[in-house]
Amino acid sequence: MPKDRPKNLGELKKSGWKSRSVKEELRQNLVAKIATGERIFDSIIGYEKTVLPQIENAILSKHNFILLGLRGQAKSRLIRLLATLLDEYIPVILGTLLNEDPFNPISPKAKAMVQDQGDKLPIEWLKNTDRYHEKLATPDVSIADLIGDIDPIKAAREKLDISNEEVIHWGIIPRTNRGIFAINELPDLQPRIQVGLLNILEENDIQVRGFPLRVPLDMLLVFTANPEDYTNRGNIITPLKDRIDSQILTHYPKSLGDAKKITTQEVSHDAKNIKVPDLVSDIVEEISFQARSSEYVDQSSGVSARVSISAYECLLSNVERRTLKIGDDDFFPRMCDLYSMLPAITGKIELVYEGEQDGPVLVAHRLIGQAISHVFSKHFPKPSREKSDPEHQGRNNPYEAVMEYFSSGKKLSLSDDLMLNEYSSRLEGVAGLRDVVKKYFNTSDKRELLLRMEFVLEALHQNNMLSREVHDSIIQYTDVFSDMLKDMGGFN
After folding, report:
1. Which residues neighbour 140 within 8 Å (Cβ) at sequence distance 6 or greater?
2. What is the pLDDT of residues 188-230, one digit of tens each?
3. 256-379 has which CATH code?
4. Continuous segment of H or E residues that includes residue 153
5. End-to-end CA, the chain
6. Distance (Å, whole) CA 479 – CA 470
7. Which CATH superfamily is domain 9-249 in?
């Protein structure tokens, strides 16, 4: 804070500083940012045409509002960024608990200080980040936590009568006066506690243990809620909903590009030496998209953006661990690294009954497979077992040589501990595999070429063209019909 700011009431008057309400302050600062084209909510991706305009409208309308959406939709981050719209510093009366305006004190103590000290009244400057407070709603939250209660110890220590207003211990809401107060997961708040918010939202009347107080609190109140909570854990009482001016619906990223930007922004892994190609990051994000439409996943619970973030971090860690373990310098993803993401997926998706019957691991495997198939369809033609027909160009099968390689009884084994040279040698040994990739993907990067060769094999398996078995992290690709006959006892 600059040292030349006013230090008492007299200096504040001379400075020309003017009081304004929190909502007016937010509105005017937002207007200024919009007029200059400044980005208002940094780090928020994918809401530019949907959620952010509604939040801006709510602020311009001086509304208290609620963000309603499933888990992992940046609701908490959005409300925390509101503090950036506040003035950097505001003056408050030094020694008061309610951040009181030197020009408009609201407590008896502050009014007495202004009356007794006049222009010599000391003031301090409160930073905008200290003017934002939030509370996670839980069933054990009390009125005392939010609004306040009588403090008998304070009454005894200062020899005050129990009826004196000064014996009140103020809760977190009054202490956020002249700021922004947020309640996360509002439906989890007990109905009788929600009732205590009604007058704060509308009339600014606070009653503590029978004290009929008129405390004109000045603040913006914002809330978050998950639609699932309305039936599973609680509800928002109707009078409270009526007093919340705007309800804004959040959503998951609508495009793969936005999802990738969010994940890249949020990943905490220090992976500067690991190059992750778009193919792999597309698959990671597609897992969440597949989960959000899966019949095995409970869609009412949602699939958080944290699934992709945690999965991406697991992928990077597996690349790092594998490379360090085998003493290679190949800090580049392989398809086998995708299955290291299972712990990040199984712990974050809620399953319906059918999914519970299959189990979270099997469902996660299925989601990874579906993501691979979906991304594969964007880069390569749909796999087919038809033979190439020179007379019908449309029936050419680019995978014919690869399929014949395996149908001749040959197998391919890949493992997590293969050195790069051996990994490359085994993939290059599959007839026609390199040609397929080179036909649909032009690159001079040998590692990405190898990755896509393995990607084709994995996609052929996902499309039931090849059989794939995993034993102790060793992946073996074989002909699907030979594998079926083997299971039937046709092969020894």
Report:
1. none
2. 898 888 988 887 887 666 666 666 667 788 999 999 998 875 5
3. 1.10.8.80
4. helix 152-157
5. 81
6. 15
7. P-loop containing nucleotide triphosphate hydrolases (3.40.50.300)
